[in-house]
Amino acid sequence: MLKTQSIDQLLSQAQVAIDNALNNPTILSALGDYAYTTARIQTGKKLYTEAAAAQLAQTAEAGEQISASATVNDAWETAKKSYIRFIKIARIAFKHDAGISTQLALSGTRKRTFSGWMAQATQFYKNAIANKVILSSFKNLASPSKSSKPDSLNSPLLKPLT
Questions:
Q1: Kind plus residue range of the DSSP H or E element containing 114
Q2: Sequence ranges of the domains in the chain
């Protein structure tokens, strides 16, 4: 049965084999019978060094990629919270306006994939920005006068996200 080895294991084994061949005259002599000269083993050692360096670089890049993914995911979570807050407000504000509800895609569930979410959020924000009625409604909800502030504006939906 063939056993799969990691790159780290293979590199370690190669390093041991190369070092043993170069440091042990008996092994070096035996390898000479198979055309493995000191020069050829030195070439192998250079290749090993390049492979080990590439492995280290790949590990560092993988770590950077994982960190970048975490940063993107954190930003997406923050954006989703803000988007959902606006969706909830819009559903209340425009519950009697089917046209605006359709423009903003207020009905239905929110997409869970990044591409689906991005399409819905883009539709929502582009249409909201392009429509003065929608913008003015959001503005009025965000900064009503103290005397005209309805109780519904005390809803936790309108509280700033922290």
A1: helix 114-130
A2: 7-158
Per-residue pLDDT of the chain (162 residues; tens, 9 = 90+): 567 889 999 999 999 999 999 999 999 999 999 999 999 999 999 999 999 999 999 999 999 999 999 999 999 999 999 999 999 999 999 999 999 999 999 999 999 999 999 999 999 999 999 999 999 888 887 765 554 444 444 444 444 444
Query: What is the SS3 assignment for 35-76?
Result: CCCHHHHHHHHHHHHHHHHHHHHHHHHHHHHHHHHHHHHHHH
What pTM, to 2 d.p., does this model score? 0.59
Strand, helix or coil at 112? coil
**Residue among 133, 35, 124 nearest 79 (CA):** 124
